[in-house]
């Protein structure tokens, strides 16, 4: 019997398997294979769940088109300057958070984890 799986389901399963194995090189190869049918947010979340090095996680954050979501991920990683830059880009294109708002979010996260 042949197992049939949608492309999205296949990518999701493969991503989860690679992240669980912490095979960051294979994850990067998957991301570069072609445009991800599941988006790059899934890659970021898989990295965060598996505690990937920040340099691995940021490879996928920069591929996220939504600048506010990109800023949110940078903030979650404690990369305040990158978060502020993404928010500034979002603000100039659609009106987003200010640098002070990002600092406040960062401070809230810091308190949450201390």
In short:
The chain is mainly alpha-helical. The protein has helices spanning 7-20, 24-33, 41-49, 54-61, 67-76, 80-94, 99-113.
Sum up the structure in keywords:
114 residues; mainly alpha; 7 helices; elongated
Task: Describe the structure in your own words.
By secondary structure, this protein is mainly α. The chain is 71% helix and 0% strand. It contains 7 helices and no strands. The radius of gyration is 16 Å and the shape is elongated. The model has no long low-confidence stretch (mean pLDDT 88).
Shape: elongated
Structural class: mainly alpha
Give the amount of beta strand, in percent: under 5%
Averaged pLDDT, please? Answer: 88
**Rounded radius of gyration (Å):** 16 Å
Query: What is the element string, with H for helices and E for strands?
Result: HHHHHHH
Major β-sheet profile: none
Number of H- or I-type helical stretches: 7
Helix content: over 70%
Give the low-confidence spans.
Answer: none
Question: How far apart are the termini?
Answer: 53 Å
How many β-strand stretches?
Answer: 0
